[in-house]
Amino acid sequence: MKEIATFGESGHTISKLHLFDGVTDDGVDAMLASCTVLRIAAEEELPNMHGTEACVYVVLRGALINFLVADNSQQRRTDKILPGESIGELSVLDEAVPSNTMTAVEETDLLIIPSRLMWKLIDEVDGIARNLLRQLSFRLRAANAQLRRREKVGEFYRQLSLIDGLTSLYNRAWMNDRLPNLIEEAHAAERPLSLIMIDLDYFKKFNDEYGHVVGDNALRVAAGVLSAALRPSDFAVRYGGEELTVILPDSDASAGKMVAQRLCERMRNAIVFEDMHLPLPHVTASFGIATLDAHHGAEDLITRADAALYRAKEAGRNQISF
Ligand SMILES: Nc1nc2c(ncn2[C@@H]2O[C@H](COP(=O)(O)OP(=O)(O)OP(=O)(O)O)[C@@H](O)[C@H]2O)c(=O)[nH]1
């Protein structure tokens, strides 16, 4: 980077600089005449300060890219600063160190307006304060829009992280997060809630016999059976491996049993493999039902559903127990 001239010598005028839009005061060129014009090479980084003073940088030629330094010290690229545009106003106004680093996209010439002169211009020249405010409000809106976009993207990935990739059901992380809330809501409203633990039967044998690809398909089919049979207010979760869970808000023990019975039958009849040249493998599952007791929490509910599931397995599988 090198100082190539003063603004007065550079041949540039304020007419194309946004900060001076609508400013007709002839004195401004004179006030800026002795300001430095700095040339920085492509990919060169701009210092945060010029000397010891904060300053406004106005792009006369070339372009800058504004890198926002994130908390985790990764750099994120934001918008380009093009000829006529400026940067650094906030640091002049609040005297804080800028939170971004700027890099030249190509060889770039910059007019440097030191803080003291910037304040003098604001105080003495009509229109500059207005332009500055307009520029800052534009930047604030752009920053808000970017924040909203990031929030949406963040929410998208958060949702994605709560969905099981194979079955598209909710995953265990979702259940760990949501079940305590659902239980709290049920207690507060004094409404029932039932939970069904489901485990595919002899699934190891199924995998051994038909292979893991068909096994995966069987899991998808089992998930589909749950999704198709439940109300929109119910939740189906892949608890882990070949274990699935169904949460039934507003459902007492008899409703829980009825749903489990229906799921058990549909599971038994579901077709895993459509190819008629192969023997049609079916899957069955065992179901353990537990209904929420007053004052009991998620852990207790899962433990009781697990115990019921164990009884269904012990009793021969392909059935429900409570
Ligand atoms: N294909 C496939 N298999 C899985 C997946 N997750 C777990 N399994 C298999 O599920 C089988 C579960 O076996 P076990 O826990 O012994 O139970 P089981 O053979 O179903 O026997 P019971 O539960 O007693 O009826 C294991 O062989 C796992 O590899 C998966 O995502 N895809």
List keywords for this structure.
Rev_trsase/Diguanyl_cyclase, diguanylate cyclase, 43% helix, five-stranded mixed β-sheet, binds guanosine-5'-triphosphate, 322 residues, EC 2.7.7.65, five-stranded antiparallel β-sheet, Diguanylate_Cyclase, alpha+beta, cNMP-bd_dom
Secondary structure layout:
Layout: E1 2-6, H1 7-10, H2 27-32, E2 36-40, E3 55-61, E4 64-69, E5 75-81, E6 86-87, H3 89-94, E7 100-104, E8 108-114, H4 115-124, H5 128-160, H6 172-189, E9 193-200, H7 203-210, H8 212-229, E10 235-240, E11 243-249, H9 253-269, E12 285-291, H10 298-314, E13 320-321
Parallel strand pairs: 12-13
Antiparallel strand pairs: 1-2, 2-8, 3-6, 3-8, 4-5, 4-7, 9-11, 9-12, 10-11
Helix pairs in contact: 7-8, 8-9
Bound molecules: guanosine-5'-triphosphate.
Enzyme class: transferase
Domain GGDEF: 191-322
Protein name: diguanylate cyclase
